Please model this.
Amino acid sequence: MQLAVALDGAPAPIGATTFDPYGQLVKMLLPRAQSIAIYDRMGLPVWLNDGLDSPELHRILQDALAQHLSPSSGGEGFAEPIDRDHCAYVFLLRDPDARLIGAVGIICRESRQGSDPRPFALVQGLLRPALECLQRELNSQYSIGDLQRSLMVRDRDLELLLGAAQDEAATSESTDDLAQLLQGCVDHLNCSVGALLIPDKNIAVCRTGQGVPPRVGADVLTRTHRHLLAWTQLHRQTMTSNQPVEAGPLGKLPYKVLSCPVMHGAQRVLGLLVLFKPADSPDFDLRQVRIVELLARRVAYILLNAYDPTTGLLTRPAFEKRAQGLLGQAGQSAHHSVIYIDIDRLHVLNENLGMHVGDEVIMRVSEVIRRHLTPRMLAARISGDRFAVFATDMPLDDAQTVAENLREGLEQLGFVSGSQTVDVSASFGVARVVDGKHPLAHALAAAEIACKAAKDRGRDRVETYEESDQSIVRRFTDVTLVGTLRYALAQDQFRLEAQSIVPLNGAVAGPKFELLLRMTDEGGQSLSPEKFLSAAERYQLAPAIDRWVVRRVLQTLQPHAAELTRRGACFAVNISGQSLGDAEFCAFLEGALRESGLPPSLLSFELTETAAVANIVRAEALMRRLRDLGFDVALDDFGRGLSSLTYLKTLPATCLKIDGTFVRDVVGDDRAQAMLSAIVRLAQAMGLRTVAECVESDAIRDIVRQLGVEFGQGFSIGRPAPLEKVIPAVLGASI
Model:
């Protein structure tokens, strides 16, 4: 039976090269050979012929290998008689550097009993071709094996470095991330203790190797960290100590030390990464030094991206990642809070005293925040003059107290710059973290809304997000809808509905409609304008929505323009106050109308009275331009403003749409009827048509008709319907 094993004793893999051809060649060259064995450099058999495993041959080979392991021995083998009929021959195989790589042992039957064995040189000469081939084979296999082991080590090095960089895209940090990186380094380099020390960031992470108690790492670090930090700050380079030191802080330390600085650029030392190996373990070599230096650079990169360079507080991505980690660790019953901080009037300081004063204020504010932090808190600089604090396991009342203490601390920051006194204050918003899909994001949004409410209510105060505070709830709703609005614009998720406007006095008129905007959110739910227009105006999205409406209306009406015009149809389009304030909107609207070629009678436009008054100059210019192009223009929600009559003679409107608050109350309310009657008489005197909004019952319809209102619009007259369905109905009405 022949035996084939991998070199160094591991079982040979399927398909591996065996030594059977070399054994057969030896048998052919030396026919009297009875037992043939091939051994590797570790003294393990890799080939035996036909199961003739001779214990005596094995003993001789082991003794020979033990005596000839060093290159200085230089022997090529020997012959040793076993008995009168047999002799053992041992041939030592070496690589080009004279290092022992294996051996061949043969027990050979001698030709004459009792005669001297054949000379060793004679047998070696007979077997030289086989021995040289076998020597080359063993040398090649060992070279391949060494290369494979080297590649495996390099692969593990690469895995360690890639593992350290796997979150590079996120550029965020947590203490757990650094601890994992350090533990991986300790395990990979077979160290007993590893530590990462960053004094400015209050980071001190210590990890021990397998089987080493944590207290051992703490003891080693206590003895050495001051000396190592001081040495690193002074020399700014890697230190390797593979030899025991008799005196000093490292004296009689039973470890080999590798200490690498964590640098900011080429000058400033942030801290150090240090590793300790047992004194009897292999030295730290150049490869390991290079790995640790690369890991130290990675740590520096993480730190520089995780901490704001001006304030030393966390950046927003790092803050969110660490807060999310704390939320994941906490139980369901834990109460967390968020504090949002916005420095008051910092832009005024920048403009009047210079940006350097504003930067100093930011640094002083961040220092106050840092002094008030406890181990349960995280703090970050969210943007230029805004900060956030995440308080772990802290009820809302306690978070309010922390915010109030911070506010009082900032009041003491006043300082003199040049000849002027700089007063510092901030507005604070506090919110609890509520369970949900994105608890931290919603809590930050709620705290930001409360902070804005604090600014609206006088600044230098703390406001808490409460669902009973409608103004804050409205702001929060607007914030949460901004993303939905942008999604709707990008994905074309708006749609138009048309509501009828009909004559109340029985006059014959073509079909008229007001176009109303609706929106579909990410979940496919329909939202009315009351829910999203406030957010659109608060976050300056109304002009973009108005442009979408104009394009969609023109695109929808163009194919049917001639027939709709013949039937006297007219569709009213609303224009927001923000579009009035947009200097480019008038040019866009005029260009779109001219390009469409639609007849002016097919379209009219509505501007709310309050928006027109707030932008009186632009409103008048736009209304006159539309009138010059032949389009009607209505003042919507007329009567709601405080100066309706004052500006009515200035704005070139063709129609007044009476605000629904007058119309809804007209039944049984003499004052509402009197005001409605006055508006009607004024409109008649100025030659303006009138439309009553919110005609929601037959009783309202009868009274507004009796008061002289010409047109009505509301649920009792007709509910809104999709524009795509209204147009075919209009086209088929007179067929």
Remarks:
- The chain is about 45% helix and 20% strand.
- Confidence is low (pLDDT under 50) at residues 1-16, 164-174.
- The first helix runs from residue 20 to 29.
- The longest strand covers residues 268-278.
